[in-house]
Amino acid sequence: MESEIRNSLMRLLGDKLNRVGIAENELGDRFDLVKSGLVNSLEFVDMVAALEKEWHCEIDFEAALDKGDLTTLGGLVKTFESARNG
Amino acid sequence: MTQEKTYLKGRIIDRFLESARRYPDRPALQKGPVGITYAMLRSSAESIADQIFQSGDDRPLVGVIADKSIECYAAILGILMAGKGYLPLNPRFPESRNRFMIEKAGVRSVFENGRRTSQVTSQVPHTKPDPAYLLFTSGTTGEPKGVQVSNKNVSAYLDFMLKTYDFSGNDRFTQNFDLTFDLSVHDLFLCWSVGACLCVPEDSSSFSMARFIREKQPTAWFSVPSVVMLMERMRVVKPGAFPSIRLCFFCGEPLFVRTVEAWRPAVPNAKIINLYGPTEATIAISHYEIPPVPEQIKQELGIVSIGRIFDGNSWTSQVTCEVTPVELCLSGAQIIDGYFNNPEADQQSFFTDEKTLDKCYKTGDLVKSDQDGDLFYLGRTDSEVKISGYRVNLREIENVINTYESVDQAVIIHEVKNDGQAVLHAIIISKTGHETTIQQIDGFCRERLPWYMLPGNVIFVKEFPLSNNGKVDRTALKEKYIHGK
């Protein structure tokens, strides 16, 4: 499931990655979507909402932020995987 | 016991020094687990002032890397103690933009982490007297415009706010604003005028705001409305969530009634006040206290009224007939004397009122007034927009992109989506025989413009639709390429 969630995320990020000239396979799990400037805070929250809708789950934002890596590619994917697994 | 309320006139640093004299052991600043008393902060500020005196720097302005560290706040105070004005430099801005500001301001000293570095600047600008700070706002020419605000201007703002709202030494002020944003002056100097504690969020992103409020228990909140919109989308704005807040100010962006309705249950003990004001009018110059009953909120198209102009200032418009909207023109104690070394901009934005002979500032904001004298913001007369509270002149972005070697012409279109989020679209024609890529434009802009001015979308076209007078038809352009009609 992890790779499917990752694919959803890549689809959402497609235009933005294209704009800065980063290929999907260049993005490591530790790539920070917000700190890198790829998306701003509001865009990040919207992206999470889009993933929640697609994957029929809801994440606890603050609990996820506590883990420290929610805004990284790997952290976001893992958060959704955990939410899906209940 | 009634708290003594005597407010000093003159320099804003005197207000801090008076609080430090009266309440040396009170906390002046808290950031994360680190707290610092008034006496400690004054001591750090004195060492900054000493460094300035010892350096022999005779320029009226001194730069400071505005990274919200404790050393940075001490530097701001130290610069003011040395009788100079501060120029905040944003570490997140492109280096070229900070360099531009240093050069324009002609500063010889910049403080970072409590240490002074010497600067070599060729310009010796003519500075207006009594500087408190110099900020740069987006301009039409491709260069930011300097706005020098005096101690007199800031004192007028502080006096009005202290007279009108019940701040006290027991308050805990939030420091949400970036220090390159003039709304931060409200945070710092209202707080330190009453001997209160300034609470600085440890994490600069807005994601941790709810936790910050719960942990630090601020009583006086100040932010742009979009911070609340973000918190709402994170589902952390819940009834009764933030009972410590008793004064809640918003400024910097239109405040939507729906934002107030979402926020009010979370701050059950708070007065909510909408402030309005351009940098040239010093922080804010009008206010509207929002009534608790939603039906009584004065609004226009879902946007809360900006209320009435502060005492000591007045407004007029250059239109004499009874038509609305009109351009808001401001005069009074909070209005700056003029732009920093920019007579051309002065001529465009300032005029003398024929009746009162007051110097008036043309805000470019369109307003209307109701029978009670409350004002309603209706839009702009020009190409300036607000993004996350920052003023952005679309012409400045266009002018920057137009300097890229393979670009023939660029037009920036500002789109506000249904959820209130703003997107900048760059629509570009490349020079004949040249090809330009999205990545080239993105990289070029990132080197020259702050993050909030970066286009979120780049579109290449062969030609622009023109209006009857031969100018680019921006409405048609927006319809064709943004709305896809």
Tally of strands of chain B: 27
Question: Largest chain-chain contact?
Answer: A-B, 18 and 25 residues
Mean pLDDT of chain B: 91
Strand content of chain A: under 5%
Description:
The complex is a heterodimer of chains A (86) and B (485). With 86 residues, chain A is mainly alpha-helical. Chain A has 4 helices and no strands. Chain A is globular. The two termini of chain A are 14 Å apart. Chain B is an alpha/beta fold. In chain B, 28% of the residues lie in helices and 27% in strands. A 5-stranded mixed sheet of chain B has the order 11-12-13-14-17, with helices on one face. In chain B, α5 packs across α6. The longest helix of chain B is centred in the first third of the chain and has 18 residues, at 38-55. Chain B is globular. Chain B starts with 11 loop residues before the first helix and ends with a helix.
Which features characterize this protein?
heterodimer; A: 86 residues; mainly alpha; 60% helix; 0% strand; B: 485 residues; alpha/beta; Rossmann fold; GMP Synthetase, Chain A, domain 3; 5-stranded mixed sheet; 5-stranded antiparallel sheet; 13 helices; 27 strands; globular; disordered N terminus
